[in-house]
Design a protein that fits this description.
The chain crosses the membrane at residues 85-103, 118-137. By secondary structure, the protein is an alpha/beta fold. The chain has one domain (8-283): 3-Layer(aba) Sandwich (Rossmann fold), CATH 3.40.50.1820. It is 45% helix and 15% strand. The protein has 11 helices and 9 strands. It has helices spanning 31-41, 57-61, 65-80, 93-104, 132-136, 140-144, 158-169, 173-176, 183-198, 221-229, 252-283, and strands spanning 8-10, 15-20, 44-47, 85-91, 111-115, 146-148, 180-182, 207-212, 234-239. The strands form 2 sheets. Strands 1-3-2-4-5-8-9 form a 7-stranded mixed sheet, sandwiched between helices. α1 links the parallel β2 and β3. α1 (31-41) crosses α11 (252-283). The longest helix has 32 residues, at 252-283.
Length: 284
């Protein structure tokens, strides 16, 4: 049976945000930011549900990273018919996917909004022995392994954390994502990261990186590495009062504010190009 579609869509103006959730996650991770981008900026926002997500672990394992990319490209093709300027972004692995597509389809992407981008799990809540998974991933023990969510679940605010934990306890993966991520899905993510890192230098669109200084899942070294290796202008914002899930934690308003600023700059640049083109035609 096909999974129910929990994608988020907000119809707005000709500047669009295509935002991608994380591994084992859900579009709900992006709902606060998506709604604010639409209400405050009037922008079109789409947060697609990745293939295999918002269901069971078996549903996730039945897909690969190419399937996840295909979900985003389908949404991108739709957004191209609605928007003149497109900013692609996402949370955690979703930010990595955004970079991959920006490198693959540079003509379709005008900017990037990368929220807590994750190339490696090295935050302070990650067990020290997690590096062993790469050595054991193809063994029977490695194939049975699951990354189980643990305190503080990427959230510093205790009220928000309690709500997420409650949803996880109910097994509601559409609302809170999977409680445990199977190793097979993590292996797929490694493949995506490997391909993305190879092409980072070719990504020349303006980029915004928002990362928490105290990220419990992916340390600030992830943002530093990406900033150094992207090929275009990079604006990096370091948050001081939240953890990994920057789109729903205490400082999500800053995430929105800086994303709106990026959209404003890109929209102005598009208008300037259109004006210059019209003047050139008139001069002829």
């Amino acid at each position: 049976m096909p999974l129910a579609d929990h994608s988020l869509r907000f119809a707005g103006n000709r500047t669009g945000f295509l935002l991608i959730h994380g591994l084992g996650g859900t579009p709900v991770e992006l709902r606060l930011v998506a709604r604010a981008l639409h209400r405050s900026g009037g922008h079109t926002v789409h947060c697609p549900q990745l293939a295999g997500h918002c269901g069971s672990e078996a549903d996730l394992l039945a897909t690969n990273w190419q399937d996840w990319i295909a979900s985003v490209e389908t949404a991108l093709d739709r957004m191209k018919t609605q928007c003149d300027t497109i900013i692609i972004g996402g949370l955690s692995m979703g930010a990595v996917m955004a970079m991959y597509i920006a490198a693959k389809r540079p003509q379709d992407i005008d900017g990037l909004a990368l929220y807590a981008p994750t190339l490696w799990y090295d935050g302070w809540s990650i067990p020290w022995y997690s590096f062993l998974l790469k050595l054991l991933i193809d063994t029977p023990m490695g194939r049975r392994f699951r990354f189980v969510e643990r305190e503080p679940y990427g959230i510093k605010d205790p009220r928000i954390r309690a709500m997420i934990v409650h949803a996880m306890g109910r097994g509601d993966s559409a609302a809170a994502g999977l409680l445990g991520t199977p190793s097979g899905a993590v292996k797929q993510m490694w493949g995506l990261i490997r391909e993305t890192r190879r092409s980072m230098g070719t990504i020349r669109q303006p980029a915004l990186i928002v990362h928490a200084r105290e990220d419990d899942v992916a340390s600030l070294s992830n943002a530093v590495h990406i900033q150094r290796h992207l090929g275009g202008i990079v604006d990096t914002v370091v948050l001081d009062d939240c953890y990994h899930l920057v789109t729903i934690d205490r400082q999500n308003d800053i995430v929105v504010e800086r994303s709106l600023g990026l959209a404003q700059r890109l929209t102005a640049a598009f208008a300037a190009r259109e004006s210059a083109g019209a003047c050139a035609v008139a001069a002829e």
